[in-house]
Amino acid sequence: MPLQTVPLTRDQAFAMQEELIAGFSEEAFRRKLGARWKAAGNDMVLQARARQEVCLEVQGPIITKFGFEASRKGAAMSVLALQAPELEQDAEITARNLLLGRLADPSKRVTRGSGRDYQGAAQGGGASGGGSGAWGSRATTTGAGVALPAEECSPTGKAPCAPAAGTVAVDIAVEASRYEGLEVPRGCTVGQWKQLLATGLLGGAVAYAERLRCHVEGAEGRGLDDAAPLPEPPDIVGVQGPPPVLRMLKLGLQRKGQPPDGRPRLGSYRLGRKLGSGIRGVCVYLAEHVTDGSEAALKWPAGRDEVRALRELERRAPVLGAPRLLALGTHRGRPFVVTELLGERLSCAFPRPRLHPLEARWRAVRVIGRLLVRRLESLHGCRYVHCDVSPENILLGSGGPPEGSSAEDPRGALCLVDFGLARPYPGGEALEGGQGSAEWSSVRSAEGGVRRPEDDLEALGWVLLHGLFGTLPWIPVLSDAYAEWSADDVREGVLGQVRRMKSQLLDYMGTGSVLRAAWAVAHMHAWGRSSLAAVHARTRARVRAPTHS
To answer: Cβ-count burial of 263 within 10 angstroms (0-12 exposed, 13-18 middle, 19+ buried)?
Structure first.
């Protein structure tokens, strides 16, 4: 039966709680609850049903008296959370509900006089208020002046951190908040967890807990039925459901553990904002170490080849221009890597053609080029090729862009990142022609095959030419084609056209002629647009061509 919409004042909430505490403290109630609990054995579902049915006999008339309909899933906390959300953070109400949950749980060591002792402390001030009664010797007083049973505190007055024997700590995500370290019985199923929520696992019952829906956080299509095991870390239990029930759950989780941190956690790092994303769902996040607060870059999911390459480079450290590897791990069965946090993309260090004369741009590009050649030489000396050199995969160090042409070359001045396509050389696996950034890849690599160090160097040349002159002729061609990139004819045709444009530009440039290169780049822009139009026309003609059986 649904609860009626009758708001509770604070005094009414106190009065209802006092009657419930008195009823749950009666000898007859304790004997009946104990007998039903014993008969249930170790079956958590039968235990939960016993608690619901025995407690309802006492609880039903009381909550009905205060204007609510009793239901099998009803409980004092459900009334407060559903009808008086402004009372949810009240320390005294929370303490009373904590005691109610313990009185209704035979597994807790609460004596028959606990309810009456509590009433005496609440009404007469207890030990801290000068009142009489046994409560002062059996409880610890909180900062809010409300006494809690001594069994809820450790000998130091702090809640214990380690899970008890036979339990496991799980992480729960509710909306944007995450709650860590909730203790549940080892091997608990989703359905059993809901039953435990409904019967006071969190210190107060979560009414209608059976309406909650659970899933593995971040895993699409992985809803969990009641028979499924409750996921354990590193997986996070995501919970959805009716807003009032979620409010009750969040209140209970806040009482049970630490304040929520809405940021997901992978290993020793909490995720912040997204720094970038790539194909196949790969994302790079700003991450913060949970202990020292240091910031880093976390990439998930990382490819197996990238993990292998970063491990090998870290083993050979220091490798000039390779980011420091801070941590490795897996999340939902897929690897993540944590590296040092770097600065902006290389493009930020290139002078803008419209604001600087060609001679000034040439001086800056020469400095950057020398630094990057040294980095590729260091990488190739470790018997690896990067296979995806691009402005997006070259980041400035934390000190900003390099200045001057001194022989001093700080390790972090420029760094190569994204080793997802990196391969050992010699002996590396072949790559397809379309793998990597077509804007910058070498002419030879467009045909596919094993990548070589000279392919990295040619890609660097295109990057530097971009820094010198701005947009290269084939970049608009590729940008226009990406909308139809899934069509094999378009993709293969455009890649072939880009390869021919690069070859022809190399022929135009000659040797050592910067001015001739500038003229060639300007000349090819119009040609690139017309070439793309020709590719599209050929593709449309093939689509329209009639087929004959």
So the answer is: middle
Point out which residues pair with 13 in neighbouring strands.
none
For residues 431, 435, 441 and 447, what is the CA-based torsion angle, rounded to 10 degrees?
50
Give 238's Cβ-side CA count (13 Å radius): 15
Q: Could you give the CA distance from residue 530 to residue 524 in angstroms, rounded to a whole number?
A: 10
* Nearest 10 degrees: Cα torsion 167, 173, 178, 182: -10
Question: How confident is the model over 409-426, as pLDDT tens digits?
Answer: 555 589 999 999 999 998
CA 148 to chain centroid, in Å, comes to 36
Peptide bond into 426 cis (omega under 30): yes
Cα 527 to chain centroid, rounded:
46
Q: Cβ neighbours of residue 124 under 8 Å, at least 6 residues apart?
A: 130, 131, 132, 133
Cα torsion angle, 141, 142, 147, 149, sign: negative
Reduce the secondary structure of 389-413 to three states and give it as a string: CCHHHEEEECCECCCCCCCCCCCCC
Give residue 538's pLDDT.
54
- b/e map 436-452, b = 16+ CB within 10 Å: bbbbbbbbebbeeebbb
pTM score = 0.52
Interaxial angle between packed helices 190-198 and 44-65, expressed in degrees from 0 to 180 and rounded to the nearest 10: 30
CA atoms within a 13 Å half-sphere pointing along the CA-CB vector of 110: 27
pLDDT at 78: 43
Q: Per-residue DSSP letters for 106-167?
A: TTS---TTHHHHHHHHHHH-TTTTT--STHHHHEEE-TTS-EEEGGGS-TTSS---SPPTTE
Strand spans (E) along 175-294: 177-185, 213-216, 223-224, 237-240, 265-266, 269-277, 283-289
The band of 451, judged by pLDDT with boundaries at 50, 70 and 90, is very high
More confidently predicted of 329 and 64 = 329
Q: Whose CA is closest to 491, among 421, 441, 433, 431?
A: 433
Kindly state the DSSP code that residue 447 receives in the 8-state scheme. G
Q: Could you give all domains of the chain from N- to C-terminal order, each with its CATH number?
A: 10-152 (no CATH), 167-256 (3.10.20.90), 266-340 (3.30.200.20), 471-549 (no CATH)
Contact indicator for 107, 36 with CB cutoff of 8 Å: no
Nearest C-alpha neighbor of 185 from the set 161, 207, 201: 201
**Contact status, residue 198 vs residue 210, Cβ threshold 8 Å:** yes
Q: How many helices (H) and strands (E) does the chain have?
A: 15, 17
- Measured at the CA of 66, the angle between CA 86 and CA 55, to 5 degrees, comes to 95
Q: Which two tokens stand for residue 83?
A: 């009808």
